Amino acid sequence: MFSTGYFLQQTLNGVILGCIYALLALGMTVVYGILRLINFAHGALITLGAFFVYFISFRLGVPLIGSIFLVLGFGALMGLVLDVVAYRKLRGGPEVALLITSLGFYIFIENFMKMIVSPQPYAFKTPTYLNALFRTQFITYRTIDIFIIISSIIIMFAFHLFVKRSKIGIAMRATAENLEVANMMGIEINKVITVAFILGSAIAAFTGFLWGAKYGQISYDMGFLTGVKAFVAVVVGGVGSIPGAMLGGFLLGLAEILPLALLPTSFAEYRDGIVFAILIFILIIRPSGIMGVKEEVRV
Amino acid sequence: MIGLLKIDHLVVKYGVIPALQNVSLEVGTGQIVSLVGANGAGKTTTLKTIMGILRPAGGSIRYRGEDITRMSTPQRVRKEICLVPEGRGIFNRLTVKENLILGAYHRLGEISIDEDIQQTYALFPRLKERESQIAGTLSGGEQQMLAIGRGLMSRPKLMLLDEPSLGLAPLLVQELYRLILEIRQQGVTILLVEQNATMAIKVSDYVYVMETGVVKLEGIPKEIESLEDVKKVYLGG
To answer: Is B85 part of the contact surface with chain A (CB cutoff 8 Å)?
Structure first.
């Protein structure tokens, strides 16, 4: 019915979308692990990052390679600002206050973007070297696909090393497990949280660029559903687990592409419905996610 | 006796409910001082306030002659105070070695850390065997050793031990107290909180008995042990 080539092609598409979700899920899971915050504002960073690259590269003429590094810095800065402005004052308060604040900031940023860039989607035209087409016997791909896969692997590997080996990384895991005892060890909790926001936001902003370069279109509200799906990836993988977030991201990417590829085209409009159905299904069989640890009740 | 820690009229409240009322106590350098009393007497609250996890509503805490009442917990850690929390409070999802490394968090980056880890392993050979094991898989006794080992990694001058014998088999409790004496030998001052007071009083230089947020009695172990009602209420006989 379907050729091997078709199947491989769709798998590749799923993996690439999965890379994007996995990168977003990384930042979300780290923040969630420490603060129990579903950071909706994380999605806004995707939008901000995409438009940042659009404006400095396509309007101001900064070479794309340069703007890739600049967008990381920009995302980091926005993460710091969000943490200091929005969240820091709420520490120690009820978790729901943080949640509402993050939703509020998402809405604020989305509407702010709508005002300054207009509700129209923008075409994100990448240079030809990112669009060069390669054909093999089975699959067709572009340079950007390779770029997404390689950069995702590098970021995930670096993030893994950071969390496993570095002083702040170990402190981050300790804080996620037990904030009070982490504090007793002399860990400055605020510093750890700020680092989590900075890293997650830098990656999210970079992901915005990947999204634009891959799908060719960006808009003021692109971050919402993407952000929500990244959180779905977090939950599917197991909340607070970093390998889980990556796995969840890839599963979600495949889950979004493969069923549609194999079903008749009339199912295309159920794309998001299928994703959320999978989430519900996984949560019924494994409430704490695939790699999640059972949450101890916090007193 | 040189005072290392001096608490003066400490008042701590949970919301409006008073947890400590005018608690005053003193710990001299090189001593083992124990804080005994029933559940809910305010012993853990006292330790947490010394560590800066709880903020007092009144009173002061002086440490090495310096007022530390308003200092943050990490600052106190750098002043070489450490708390070994009740229920061990180890990081279950981290390895044994990572737990130890975190004990020395405030001076990470120094070369002496590897040395200290080796010393801790010398004191607790079991921990070396389980170095890369996830701490949550250790037995209760091993977890307690890890908690104390982690505390020592901070090179404390003052160690606050919260119910270290809780849930340990009698033989392990003996071993634990031998260890506590050995730690004191190395020059660490110890403030010990226990509900099972018999052992604690035996090794102490001075004892405070707490009841519902106040210090009810204090004295050297001999005096405390001889009091009939203390025996009845706290020592199980």
So the answer is: yes
Interface-testing mutation among B14, B84, B93, with chain A (most A C-beta atoms within 10 A) = B93
Last residue of a domain, one of B113, B131, B155: B155
- Angle, alpha carbons A199-A200-A202 (nearest 5°): 65
B82 contacts in A (CB within 8 Å)? Answer: 184
Question: A144: Cβ–Cβ under 8 A, 6 or more apart, which residues?
Answer: A126, A130, A131, A210, A213, A214
- A221 in B contact zone (CB under 8 Å): no
> Which residues does B35 contact at the CB level (< 8 Å), separation at least 6?
B25, B43, B46, B47, B191, B192, B193, B194, B207, B208, B210
Please check whether residues B10 and B72 belong to one and the same domain.
Answer: yes
pLDDT mean over A174-180 = 92
Range of B214's domain? Answer: 1-80+158-237
Is the ipTM, as predicted for this complex, more than 0.90?
A: no
User: What is the model's pLDDT at position A263?
Assistant: 84
pLDDT category, A295, cuts 50, 70, 90? low
Our count of domains for chain A comes to 1
Number of domains forming the structure of chain B: 2
Domain that holds residue A20: 4-222
Of residues A177, A186, A293, nearest to B77 (C-beta) = A186
B208 residue type, one letter: Y
Q: Are both B133 and B225 inside the same structural domain?
A: no
Both B100 and B143 in one domain: the answer is: yes
Last residue of one domain, picked from the residues B155, B177, B211: B155
Instruction: State whether B227 and B185 are in the same domain.
Output: yes
Is A293 inside any structural domain?
no
Contact B102 A178 (CB under 8 A): no
Q: Model's pTM, two decimal places? A: 0.89
